[in-house]
C-alpha cells in the first residue's frame, strides 16, 4: 500500500513537472500586455500613457535608437504585439515548440534560446530599419519563437532542418525584405542553439 502511494505521488510530481509551465506563463503575460495596450489604444477608462506616447510604443523596441532604455525594451518588446492576430499567430508555436523542446532540455535552455532568438531578431530589425522603409518600432515574440522552433527542428531532424530553414528564409524574402532581415538572424540562432544542444547531449552521454 505504501509503495503504491509513493508511486502515485512520484507520478503526480512528474506529471506536474512535465506540464508546459513556461510557455503558458509567457502566453499569459503576453495576453495581459495585449489587454493593456489595446485598452490604451482605444482610450478606455483604465488605459494610461507614459510620457505622452502610447503604452505600446513605450514597451516596443526602438530600432532608430537601439541603446535607448538599455535592456528593458529588449524584454518588454517580447511580450507586446501589434494586435490580437499578431499575438495569436505566435502563441500556438510558442506552446508547441516549448512542449516539444522541454522533453530534451531544461527550462533554462528554453529561456536562453528565447532570449538569443529575440535579441538577434531585434538586431535584424535595426538593420531592416536602416536599410529599408521598415517602421522604427519592433515588437512581438516571433524571433524567440522562430529560434525555439528551429532549435527543436535541428536537434530532432538535423539535416532536414536545413531544408525547413531555407524554405522559411525564401518565403520571408518573397514576402518582404524587412521580414527577412529581422527574422533570418533568429532562424540561424535557433539552428545554432540546436547544434549546441545536440553537442552537449553527445558529450554528456
The tally of strands reads 2
List the domain count as a whole number. Answer: 1
Q: How many helices does DSSP assign? A: 9
Name of the level-1 CATH class: Mainly Alpha
* N- to C-terminal distance: 36 Å
Q: Give the % helix.
A: over 70%
At the fold tier of CATH, the topology name is Rhomboid-like fold
CATH-defined architecture: Up-down Bundle
- Largest sheet: number of strands, sense, barrel closure: 2 strands, antiparallel
Uncertain runs are: 43-52
Question: Could you outline the blueprint of secondary structure elements for this entry?
Answer:
Layout: H1 2-18, H2 21-41, H3 55-59, E1 61-62, H4 72-79, H5 84-102, H6 107-131, E2 137-138, H7 142-157, H8 159-175, H9 177-204
Antiparallel strand pairs: 1-2
Describe the structure.
- This protein has helices at 2-18, 21-41, 55-59, 72-79, 84-102, 107-131, 142-157, 159-175, 177-204, and strands at 61-62, 137-138.
- The protein has 205 residues and is mainly alpha-helical.
- The chain has a single domain (20-204), classed as Rhomboid-like fold, CATH 1.20.1540.10.
- The protein has a two-stranded antiparallel ribbon with strand order 1-2.
